[in-house]
TrEMBL record:
The keyword Phosphoprotein does not apply. It comes from Pararhizobium capsulatum DSM 1112. It comes from the Bacteria. Keywords: Heme, Iron, Metal-binding. This is Mono/diheme cytochrome c family protein. PROSITE patterns: CYTC. Residues 43-152, 194-303 form the Cytochrome c domain. It holds the Pfam family Cytochrom_C. InterPro entries: Cyt_c-like_dom (IPR009056), Cyt_c-like_dom_sf (IPR036909), Cytochrome_c-type_DH (IPR051459).
Amino acid sequence: MAARMRRFLTTAVLFVAVAGTAAWFLTRPEPWPASHWEGLGEPDVANGALVFSAGGCVSCHARPGAVEGEAQLVLSGGLALKSDFGTFHVPNISPDETAGIGGWTLAEFGNAITRGVGPHNEHLYPSFPYTSYARLTAKDVNDLFGYLKTLPKSPDVAPSHELPFPFNIRLALGGWKLLFYSDAPRVTVDTSNPKLARGQYLVEGPGHCGECHTPRNALGGFEPGQWLAGAPNPEGKGRIPNITPGSKSIGSWSEGDIVTYLETGFTPDFDSAGGSMVEVQKNMAKLPASDREAIAAYLKAVPAVQ
């Protein structure tokens, strides 16, 4: 009997060890190989500024209360993002060497922004939209990093996230990524058309439009087949609208209407952008006209969702 029990316990321990090793292997952080960030040369800071605008970095990382001008370029973080999983506090991404990312390498920055892997090889929470930024090219990441280094330093340290168990266990994020992280296109459009290809890159990548405009399941992943179909407002009241061609309101807009809205904030019926879209529109207005046209073309080409 004792020998049989020992064999059972030994088998159980081996099973747990093998299962644990397999789980770790499947859910471990996966940064890019070092070669991905090599040979990029000096960053194009002017392009980095455009990536910065397209990515809406100011909207979350500017010091709370900074509403315009140079004040918004002090990226001290601190904004509290409330969610069903707890409260996330946006970090300092100024070039301060201690409080911000001034001591980071390009690889550390790039892996954080596109792979959700922090400088200590830890999983990052997807409140930071790396599931969209995953589509950024290495060149755009290099240019963005170069631009961020030109901005003012801030010594402010953002509070730690306030997350209940089990959401405070970062290891579990590896399982979440296994389910929901991908750098594949969200939908199929004719990427042989340069305008559509550019629009897809901007909307699905740096613009991270789906983060607000796509509904999510109970685990926080996007609902399949509902790309840009509208979702509950993460700030509380109302809904973020459906922006596919199947929308009852925006679906009737022409490409020109969308371009004008992104440039000026005015809708075809002379209404204006409101809520968090105000900041998004201001960022879009800083892009070249060709980029706003590409975004409009893509939005008219995505599958219509009623």
